[in-house]
Write a sequence for this structure.
């Protein structure tokens, strides 16, 4: 079956200084590259997990896929059609099929609109007539486990978990093929997190929709995703099937993340790899391997030579000069 989404060498740049200060301080960069050459595919019905520290570019990648920020380079194909370079109008047609649950669940809902209007918004935006509006709102609310009275509420009258449900209902309104779920469980109690993840799983199975799940939370990624990528300074430093990565992480950064957040599993022994130092600034990327300043296995080559992504075993690609392959000692 062909993939649903293909992304190749995608880059997103932001201007961080205005023209005048760039002219006055020519030595400093005027742009940062928040997404720096990312390639991956998502298959129909699959959940692809994206994990990384704050500022690694997860949200920017999601927003660029749905056309909210323009890529500066690279290619996006959705259902076989190239999206790169499309006009806003042409992109809009694809937003019916690729929707986003935003990171800020309440802030992304218009505060002056009742939930009923918020759920009908996607139909107005895309000029799709709705014969029975009340029935449509009730149907969407019931898909996410909310009673129909919620249609009369305003966003500020929702709890965090309820706001997530409304965000999911709105994302589902036009029967998309892909939902980008940005931090769907952030800020929720553990039991509510479980409810939201189960709901996402149920909806996915029922509607056959693919999900790009973005989160800091490794337990969430492990629970929901079939394949996953670990993002560092806008790049995918490791990508592969989720169980394989949890069982044998190959990049020292992945190892360090897993060691810092052990997922309870007696079969998995996480090596102790301390993650020291802060994430480097995108304004001043380290030379060579960009993880070298924090890597416990850093060698001379790591300081000078950028490690291209390489396949260490089928389906697993790693950006590291010395990937840690289970059972092998260096
Ligand atoms: N509109 C913008 N203009 C300038 N810089 C931006 C803009 N949006 C994001 N950035 C920068 O791009 C980088 C990546 O941000 P992004 O929000 O994608 O990270 P993230 O991985 O989603 O982080 P978090 O886990 O905190 O949500 C950050 O350095 C951020 O400051
Ligand atoms: Mg984010």
């Amino acid at each position: 079956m062909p993939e649903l989404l293909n992304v190749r060498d995608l880059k997103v740049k932001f201007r961080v200084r205005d023209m005048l200060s760039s002219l006055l301080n020519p030595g400093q960069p005027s742009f940062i590259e928040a997404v720096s050459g990312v390639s991956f595919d998502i298959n129909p019905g699959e959940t692809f997990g994206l994990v990384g520290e704050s500022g690694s570019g997860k949200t920017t990648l999601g927003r660029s896929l749905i056309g909210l920020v323009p890529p500066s380079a690279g290619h996006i194909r959705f259902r076989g059609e190239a999206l790169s370079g499309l006009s806003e109008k042409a992109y809009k047609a694809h937003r019916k099929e690729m929707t986003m649950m935003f990171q800020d669940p309440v802030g992304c809902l218009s505060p002056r609109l009742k939930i009923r209007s918020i759920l009908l918004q996607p139909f107005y935006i895309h000029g799709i007539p709705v014969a029975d509006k009340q029935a449509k709102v009730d149907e969407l609310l019931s898909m996410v486990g909310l009673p129909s009275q919620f249609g009369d509420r305003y966003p500020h009258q929702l709890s965090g978990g309820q706001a997530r449900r409304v965000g999911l209902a709105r994302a589902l309104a036009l029967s998309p093929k892909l939902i980008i779920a940005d931090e769907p469980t952030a800020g929720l109690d553990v039991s509510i997190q479980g409810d939201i993840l189960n709901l996402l799983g149920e909806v996915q199975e029922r509607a056959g929709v693919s999900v790009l799940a973005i989160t800091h939370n490794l337990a969430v990624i492990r629970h929901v995703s079939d394949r996953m990528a670990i993002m560092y300074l806008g790049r995918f430093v490791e990508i592969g099937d989720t169980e394989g990565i949890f069982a044998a992480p190959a990049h020292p950064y992945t190892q360090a993340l897993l060691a810092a957040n052990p997922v309870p599993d007696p079969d998995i022994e996480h090596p102790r790899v301390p993650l020291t130092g802060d994430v480097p600034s995108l304004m001043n990327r380290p030379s060579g391997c960009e993880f070298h300043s924090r890597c416990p296995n850093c060698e001379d080559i790591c300081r000078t030579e950028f490690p291209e992504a390489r396949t260490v075993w089928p389906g697993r690609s790693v950006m590291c000069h010395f990937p840690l392959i289970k059972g092998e000692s260096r």
About this structure: The first strand starts at residue 5 and ends at 15.
